[in-house]
Amino acid sequence: MCEMLEKFVIYLTDEKKSSMNTVLSYHRDLIKFNKFMEDYGVSDVAKMTSTNLNSYVLYMERAKFATSTISRNIAALKAYFGFLYREGWICSNPSVSLKAPKIEKKVPEILTTEEVDRLLNQPLMNTNKGIRDRAMLELLYATGIRVTELVSLELKDVNLNRGYIHCRDEHHERIIPFGAIAKSVLKDYLKKVRPSMVTDEKQTILFTNCNGTPMSRQGFWKLLKKYAQSAGIQSDITPHTLRHSFAAHMVANGADLRSVQEMLGHSDISTTQIYAKMNNQRMKDVYAKAHPRA
Fold first, then answer.
1. Where are the domains of the chain?
2. Contact 5, 37 (CB under 8 A)
3. Residue 280 confidence (pLDDT)
4. Sheet holding 173-177, edge to edge
């Protein structure tokens, strides 16, 4: 299976242009599946049946794996066996009958505007690192982009004069505006800070570490956790919390769903509609504007 799995990874990377997160997740899930099958004496993928695959799904359910984890594993199995079938490695596709469990959409965790203010005011604006961190936090909340998109932004993706960023993911591109506060801090970062951090003229990444190398998702996660703690925020905040907060604040105060959908990059508006289903009265009591920092 190892040889075929490696060919599948190459297919995902080179032909499907899947994100690195997807490739790594599928690869990890399929290795675990292979180990499960080998423990039951089945190591030849050509001999694996729908019963084998359903047994693995049943094992995950009995082991109380998260519904989202089971769904991702099923997606990995479908993609893998579909690839093997198309390439002629197997005579039939045993994953056809697999069905992902229904995932109940939970109300996302969001911050109040007061909590957002406290969080965004934590970085010290008299230090280079503080200005950079403030610019990253402001831009994340101002646009609602994913943390992967934030750390992947290049200098050419930012239009300061018109106040928007050009954001790309594996599916499409989108233009997202940002407000005056984000523009001001970002301008300070680009003018005063980034030149002292980046000595390599070939470095095009917008946000870097102090040594001029690209900021990682994990690096940003750590600094966000630190600022959340110093701001006294009790909830388990993640970069996605700011994305959810951006969307909820916008929708609760009059922004139309289609516009928010486009800014978030949701392919299906039903994903965006969850923000409209949140407790409207609670939201009205907390938020005053569609985006308080615009």
1. 2-86, 113-286
2. no
3. 52
4. 158-159, 164-168, 173-177
- Does 113-286 match 2-86 at the fold level? no
Under 8 Å between Cβ of 27 and 99: no
Sites in the chain below the pLDDT cut of 50: 279, 281-284, 286-289
User: Bridge-partner residues for 174, per DSSP?
Assistant: 167
What's the pLDDT tens digit per position in 91-133?
999 999 888 777 666 667 888 889 999 999 999 999 999 999 9
Q: What is the CATH topology of the domain spanning 113-286?
A: hpI Integrase; Chain A (1.10.443)
CA–CA dist 194, 207 (Å, integer): 8
8 Å CB contact between 164 and 176: yes
Beta bridge partners of 175: 166
| Locus of tokens 């950079």 | 132
pTM score above 0.70: no
pLDDT at 281: 45
Q: Alpha-carbon distance 293 to 134, whole Å?
A: 13
User: What is the fold, at CATH topology level, of the domain defined by 2-86?
Assistant: DNA polymerase; domain 1 (1.10.150)
